[in-house]
Amino acid sequence: MMFRQDCHSRRWVLALAVCFAAPSASAGEPLWVEAERLSPFVYRADFHLDERESLLGELRQLQRDLSESLALEASDEPIELYLFRDEKSYREYLSARFGDLPARRALYIKTTTGPGMVYAFRGPQFAIDLRHESTHALVHGALTEIPLWLDEGLAEYFEMPAEQRQAGHPHLPGILARLRAGELPRLETLERLDDTTGLSRDDYAAAWAWVHFLHHGPPGAHGELVSYLREVQQPSVQPVPLSTRLRRLLPQLERTFAEHLARHAPR
Ligand SMILES: [Zn+2]
Q1: Ligand 1 centre from 103 Cα, in Å?
Q2: Cα(155) to centroid(ligand 1), Å
């Protein structure tokens, strides 16, 4: 099972960044070995990355996937990617630019005045981290508001390569075990989580499971997600919660949810 530390305090990190307003551009600025703009991404790396083109192409495909899947209009707002050769250079840069930040493996930071920024370092989880944080950046570029659980559930879902999104996420075995033990939270429980409560490791997995259900579950479930996000984008509308929508559509929601996940159990 994957334990994502990167975003457990992401909202807190956002608030911190806002408090400090624009970060210092000169402090600890490394010599960028590579820099490239491929809209919406502005790429900087302190090392030579052989797979840069394929990586940027994959992130642009991620933007198209999100737009198509969630019926979101892609934003032109730039997303700055800051990539580092190792954890040490990543931490030194963040410390010089933002001061003390909690130790996270990757970060998405958005200030009040600047573009969304994604920070990550090369390591075993590099591609997953980049897709995860870039999903946050792309979603926040298109939406001004999104519940914490759904924000993280979408990032967990889209962090996998496209061919492994439906089947292949490491969360699945743990989710199935929790289902059998009757320990998986209802959607309403996730909906009550906010910046003050944050998300636990198990909440991340549960959020992923519900997003998986919304994408690959029974007919109508995905339409409710799209409809909900459309309402979220309208400032004058109080969106009908997804749990309410799904219960109207599927009276035996928990049972349908459990059966859906069981069908995706590894064979
Ligand atoms: Zn996250």
Answers
A1: 14
A2: 6
Q: Could you tell me the pLDDT band of residue 4, with boundaries at 50, 70 and 90? A: very low
Encode pLDDT of 121-148 as tens digits.
999 999 999 999 999 999 999 998 899 9
251 C-alpha vs ligand 1 centroid, how far in Å? 31
| CA of 136 relative to ligand 1 center, distance in Å | 7
47-59 average pLDDT score: 91
CA 89-52-64 angle, 5° bins: 115
- Read off the pTM: 0.89
User: Positive or negative CA dihedral for 143, 18, 101, 196?
Assistant: negative
Strands 116-121 and 79-84: parallel
Q: Does domain 10-142 have CATH number 3.40.30.160?
A: yes
Q: Which residues have CB under 8 Å from 91's CB, separation 6+?
A: 103
Q: What share of the chain is helix, strand, coil (3-state, %, to 5)?
A: 50, 10, 40
pLDDT in tens, 180-230: 998 888 999 999 998 777 789 999 999 999 999 999 999 999 999 999 999
Tell me the domain boundaries of the chain. 10-142, 162-263
CA of residue 176 to ligand 1 center, whole Å = 22
CB 186 within 8 A of CB 243: yes
Q: For residue 266, is pLDDT > 80?
A: no
What is the Å distance from ligand 1's center to 112 Cα? 19
Q: What is the pLDDT of residue 98?
A: 87
